[in-house]
Sequence to fold (212 residues):
Amino acid sequence: PPPYLQRLLRAGLRVSITLKHCIRKRPDVILLFASPGASFIEKSIMAAIARLLGIKTLMFPRGAALVTQYQASRLHATLLRLCFRIPTLMLCQGQAYQEFFAVEVGLGLARCPLIQNWTATSRLLKIGATRLYGDNDGTLEVLFLGWIEAEKGIFELLDCARRLCDAAGMPPFRMIIAGEGSALAEARHKVEDLGLASVVQLLGWIDSEAAE
Fold:
């Protein structure tokens, strides 16, 4: 990942852009997606700016590590509790998150609506089944782009790749995994152990220039 100072400067730039848009555009509401850690603090600052300007904010936390951080120490709990009380609503991806924010943090159910995970309907699945992928060699490409962490499902993904290789009638495919994380080395070992080296590529961190 980029150096900490570089990430801090980028975060400051995003916050300043948010401030500019809040002042110039005056939106009715702002939707913020926040990962655990520094991302959540950054998005909380954005929510505070909006609140000071009378703009409603919907915070959508992503990742169970946020709960773990809250329970890790009193210092974390105090800081995060202040952040949790800034947004107008704290959107909850599941029942466990709703209980955490409403009961353990004390925000109450009214401020913590439950937004269920998106599920593909029969109509949407039919669209995918009839999709044309253009001229290629018939090989399907699967892209995973994100942090290589156990909680992101990287090992389950590799298990699925092995099952797909063994499935009868499965067209040829290749899986491209790009990103950095604490589970990268273990993921590389698992690729070798499962015999997936011919179909799975682990590229590591990809910056914007390499992506192009």
The mean pLDDT is 90.
